[in-house]
Specification:
240 residues; four-stranded mixed beta sheet; globular; alpha+beta
């Protein structure tokens, strides 16, 4: 009997990547929401299970695994009915792995975490223009990844799509909309992923929650600049 427990916060992009994977694999699981502000991830029992006190963390029987990329690869390797989400072919897997490293190194830690730090820890009076420039550069790279294929690592849906869409959808709703006129293939990919039957519940809902929190921190002088774009994308729609 599968006994999977996922710990985390639904607004977290890495947590949402795992939720998308669990649903794609049709795996029954418990989701235990942690109040990070209250320090629930720092309680002794959680630290015993995960000394890095990060989310997401997956508990599978007596095994505890953290880091979203480690978790989603593990889930496919152990429970996947096929290897389509994480191909065993060395070259195909290398492409998926490269996209996963791109997500964690460039999109999440290099851009998203830095924007969050500026807004919530440094109390920046404006969104850093250099970070927005880096984000637009990342969008250009994603456009190139999607130049000849419908998914970021090739012709089929993989865990790389789940990882990247969790972060990109957040950046799209919060900091820099993916304009179809500038990034047509990336915009089409976002729309494609949004048609997954579990996308609304397991990704978009949490992305909207985080976007509302980010929007509340934007300085008043940016209201006119951001209001229209924010309202246009609030429903998850890609703008032109």
């Amino acid at each position: 009997m599968v006994n999977l427990i996922l710990y985390g916060a639904a607004s977290s992009p890495p947590v949402r990547a795992v939720l998308l994977t669990l649903r794609a694999l049709e795996l029954e699981h418990q989701f235990r929401q942690l109040d990070m502000q209250a320090g629930e991830h720092l309680e002794p029992e959680m630290l015993r299970k995960n000394p890095q006190h990060t989310v997401p963390m997956l508990e599978d029987g007596g095994a505890c695994i953290w880091d979203s990329h480690a978790i989603i690869g593990y889930l496919v390797n152990k429970y996947g009915k096929s290897d389509s989400l994480y191909p065993k072919d060395p070259w195909q897997r290398a492409v998926v792995d490269q996209r996963l490293h791109f997500e964690t190194g460039v999109l999440f830690h290099g851009i998203f975490k830095q924007l969050q730090r500026a807004l919530f820890k440094e109390n920046a009076t404006e969104v850093p223009k250099d970070r927005l420039g880096e984000l637009r550069d990342a969008y250009v790279l994603l456009e190139q990844f999607l130049a000849v294929n419908p998914y970021v690592a090739g012709s089929q849906l993989t865990i790389a799509d789940f990882s990247i869409v969790a972060t990109v959808s957040t950046l799209h709703l919060s900091y820099c909309p993916v304009a179809e006129s500038k990034y047509p293939k990336l915009a089409a990919w976002l729309t494609r992923l949004s048609t997954l039957p579990f996308y609304e519940e397991d990704n978009l809902r949490g992305a909207r929650q985080l976007a509302e929190r980010i929007r509340s921190k934007l300085p008043k002088q940016f209201d006119k600049l951001w209001q229209k774009a924010f309202e246009d994308i609030r429903s998850g729609a890609v703008i032109n």
